[in-house]
Amino acid sequence: MDEIMSSKKNILTAVMAAAALTLSMDRVYSDEGMWLYDDPPLEILKAKYNYSPSAEWLEHLQKASVRFNNGGSGSFVSADGLVISNHHVGAGALEKLSTEENNIFANGFYARTSAEELRCHDLELNVLMSIEDVTDQVNAVIRPGMSSEEAFKARREIMAKIEAESLEKTGLRSDVVTLFQGGKYSLYRYKRYTDVRLVFAPESLIASFGGDTDNFEYPRYDLDISIFRVYENDKPAKIEHYLTWNMKGVAENDLIFMSGNPGSTSRLITMAELKSDRDLVLPHTLQRLNRLEVLYSVWAARSKENSRRAKQSILGIQNARKAFGGHFTGLLDPSLIAKKEAEEKALKEAIAASSEYKDTLKAFDQIAQIEKDAAESYLPYRIWEGAQAFNSSYFGFARTLLRNADEKSKPSGERLREFRDSNKVSLELRLFSEAPIYEDFEILRLTDSLKFAIEQLGYNDPLVQRVLAGKSPEARAFELVKETQIKTAERRKAIYAMSPVEIQKLNDPMIEVARVVDGAARQLRKVGEQQAELTKQAHDKIAKARFALMKEHSYPDATFTLRLSYGQVKGYEEAGQAIPFQTDLKGMYAHAEDHDYEGDFDLPESWKKPLKALDLNTPCNFVSTADIIGGNSGSPVVNRAGEFVGIVFDGNIQSLVGEYVYTDVQARSTSINCQFIIEALNKVYGAEDLAKEILNGRR
Amino acid sequence: MDEIMSSKKNILTAVMAAAALTLSMDRVYSDEGMWLYDDPPLEILKAKYNYSPSAEWLEHLQKASVRFNNGGSGSFVSADGLVISNHHVGAGALEKLSTEENNIFANGFYARTSAEELRCHDLELNVLMSIEDVTDQVNAVIRPGMSSEEAFKARREIMAKIEAESLEKTGLRSDVVTLFQGGKYSLYRYKRYTDVRLVFAPESLIASFGGDTDNFEYPRYDLDISIFRVYENDKPAKIEHYLTWNMKGVAENDLIFMSGNPGSTSRLITMAELKSDRDLVLPHTLQRLNRLEVLYSVWAARSKENSRRAKQSILGIQNARKAFGGHFTGLLDPSLIAKKEAEEKALKEAIAASSEYKDTLKAFDQIAQIEKDAAESYLPYRIWEGAQAFNSSYFGFARTLLRNADEKSKPSGERLREFRDSNKVSLELRLFSEAPIYEDFEILRLTDSLKFAIEQLGYNDPLVQRVLAGKSPEARAFELVKETQIKTAERRKAIYAMSPVEIQKLNDPMIEVARVVDGAARQLRKVGEQQAELTKQAHDKIAKARFALMKEHSYPDATFTLRLSYGQVKGYEEAGQAIPFQTDLKGMYAHAEDHDYEGDFDLPESWKKPLKALDLNTPCNFVSTADIIGGNSGSPVVNRAGEFVGIVFDGNIQSLVGEYVYTDVQARSTSINCQFIIEALNKVYGAEDLAKEILNGRR
After folding, report:
1. What are the distances in angstroms from CA B695 to CA B82, B257, B301?
2. Which residue in chain A has the smallest CA separation from B456?
3. How close is the nearest chain A Cα to the Cα of B273, in Å?
4. Contacts of B315 in chain A (CB under 8 A)
5. How far is CA A195 from the centre of its chain?
6. Which pTM was predicted?
7. For strand B35-36 and strand A669-673, is the pairing parallel, antiparallel, or unpaired?
8. Nearest to A61 by CA among A44, A46, A45, A40
9. Size of interface A-B (CB pairs under 8 A)
10. What ipTM does this complex have?
């Protein structure tokens, strides 16, 4: 009797909760969502904004969107291959093009002629050409009774097969993407550009004005842009889908769209997974970031050249530290946890009340068990397979060369996934890059990461001891970096062609240390892959139950694939103050003044010399409710007409919990206004030709 | 038969090892040692330098030496109470005297008249007046069969009794000091000065020229000094023992002495203890320092005023990070470990071979077992009793007030040691200090330290949960800091007088959170004290065996009590380059120039304006082989005649392993030349009167 009552009560609660959710979805749509291009939120846009984008509108935006494979987004802005993105997205490429004499990253760059455009060392851009649902094909290979190892292998094989066939057929980069944590599989086909040349970059001071202090803050005033051109056959590529600019920019409450590649979110994970983030992943990650930030900053302070060599890495670390810090803060907020717990409870109760999906409850327990198992090998996994013991570019090359030799003789579908045929071009682009590597910085990083391994796993860990080979971390790092032969692309190409036996005969210390850990690293990876496979199977079930029972139109967690976000240009209130939706150049100069033009609040000389023609009312940056996250950096912002009005480059501090939940009370994404860009090109940088090309859509 | 052979071999090895050690001690004396004033290395000084300081020479230097109770050293340099130390030793006092409008720490200070001298908030100086060996008296209370708890209590009681009787009899601050890790107990009696006034400080830029980059590096060019005056009855104190200056300074190979208070070394610890440092203590400490360095630096970058408020703490953290980093590097050097292992092996073999001390071998195992036990509660101990969860000045007050109420009704010998009668003056000086506390900085620190506790002990740790009280770390820190009543010295005085019941009625949230953890914290402390007691007993045995068997004249590990070091002024070789023993002002300007006068390599305006009279050949800093460590900062350097020739302020990076072993190949201590000080006072700061007082030894 008690049991019946209690189960009845559960059903009621579940139904009520589901109803409440559905009700709220019916009534008040938020601007949440990083939507799939093959499943856009048409009904919400219609209901909330009375807006119905056409298929052509969507296709145009999709194909004008560009993925920066190093972790960002961008868009085509001329028929002659011009791509605009953030400075901080292009920064890696800028740094690799810089030298002690010519610090392009810091001082900026402008190619007045095609001949002056600088080819990037290893930048790969992708344009999404098509999406195909291959869920059934992928899941068909998983049969009941398969071990997790068999299932993982079968899935890896079918994914590689689909990719290889697609590449063969279309010549396009073909990736099978796992969506909804395993609830859906889609084949994404990309046009790939590997000849990417730098056209324009402002000085880093104005690109990241306010530095780490203002990062993830608002109001901001940053010209965080860089402009590239893609080439094919040594000529500027001809682009059909590029965005035209609307120099009117944005007004408050405007509906806007962002099209880019959010890297990763964790909104659909279970409470068990969320607690792993809170208790294990984030503390470990933040601890490592703090130590690296100190290490690199201290080293950078020693000289201008050290600073130049480390600057990129420091910016990346600071950005990650602030972002992950925001995630951690979110997970320590009892109200966020309560919200996530209530959501999971409602879903579980709905599942329990359903005859069809009742069995899915077990999936939550399975995930909890996997998290528990995975926690035990988390540290060794991060240190060895994650290579946290080897913070060294040379080590990355060494491992790739070592593993490639072992993998290349296998069929593509049986290799470690990064060695599959369809990834060959991208892998070789990085491996044979001529980008400079600085040995002093390598030694610093490797010494410290060896110490990190000692601290995390213990000095007497047998593998740690084998890696150290009886030496101090300093001495060992020094000899590994100094004595490895893999320093030139030419030499790496030669080794890349070698057999395992030939490589062993080289007796290269860096390759040999990669070999020392490779057995353990591969074993950890294998276990991790099996755990991931089981997690996917469980999430597949949960996703199916959620679709069926919760009746929401939803979007998968971010996967660094193209998504469409939408929202309104909108200010907000903070500590009783109204924060305006947009800043302007007057504000920029005032902000510099407030900080005595010191440190990160200094402006480059180009902005300090008398600029009479400069319109101080030019808008700089604006905020909106559109739902984005890291990886979206550089995404174009377009209006209802699909016209370019800005580029996303940041979110405010309140948006950082977006990793786990969307909120629009104060959370905002921050974008650069299109007018700011043109004003700067014309009045500050004398880049009128470039501005003209952008505004005309062609040279 | 085998057994006999092997034990015979052991004896032989031990005898040979002991002989080898003795032999090497006979032949080549190094400049190692932080010697006790009641047991100076007379025979070594005689043998190596043909120098025999008289009893008067020693007494004069001892009584001219001043301990800065916040963790440094200094010396009297005039009969009218002038005390000179490092800027970084005085920095805490300088910061407390600074305001947003008048940043004395950064901009410097000079009191041209007595009336202008600024009284420090809570600075206590001590002068060692006498030393008395009380080992037998202390050990007499420990009887066989006592539990570690009984033994600890008995020892605490007798120490408090000796101190109380001495205080009663002499009126002097009386501390029983534990030496040789428990091998010896001495009663140190100090004259105490609590009215200390600031006379002079240079700008922080020149005091720590080169900043964190040059800290623990050489060559250096730092005017790291601050000058105070001690008062009694509102008048400058009359000082009998003060140092006279010798403006000739130092020459290479000069024998010099340093007299100061090295804080702590770990040279006599066993391998088991050393491994605890390597595997547990140092990784934890460095992790925390890295996070604090990032936290404070990021906050400081937001505004000038933030920077002023956090600067002191940042400098302290950076110094500690570099020092502990050096210790860790040392312990990861296989050659250092091999040396320590060989020493312990030789000692153990000598012990095993001796009929009288054979039993002492067990002491090593006991210590190993205690280390193992202590490791288990290390984290909770640091978090709760070490208050790492509460990085807040208000929390410090709250705990003191809470515990004081409980402790004051007990006899002095039964109280937690910091509440013993003989410590009352020092405790109240700090508790009732009017030094400013900044609530924004308090909230920042407390929020982060609550997160640190979560990360270290886990979110679901019951005590962590009780401390958080259902709130986020941000919200909890905010309410604790905002709502506590203990913000003024007046209020703290009132609460200090209250009974436990009255305090409970206050319902002060900061005191209440101190109460929440106090049960656990006290229990952890009790266990820790018992472990420490057992360790002392074991070390007492080892020390006795070492004295008897190894026949070395030796010195105890540093204990922040007065020690005498000696050595030679001497350059060294690094990477094939000869590093000169001394730098000069020419070098200082060249060093600034090399770094474009940027950041920490900028010089204050006072040094940049045309200073025609300045002698650029004036020596700045010099290095010597004398054996010092943190706490020695500010120690006077004197020549054979006992005349002041400089002040120690640093050691080079190679000296950092001095925590565990002395070396003189490259390791050097770094001092400020006396001529640099006088040149600066006369030519840069217009402080001719002060220079005159110093050179004349009176006003």
Report:
1. 12, 20, 42
2. A283
3. 15
4. none
5. 22
6. 0.93
7. unpaired
8. A40
9. 80
10. 0.92
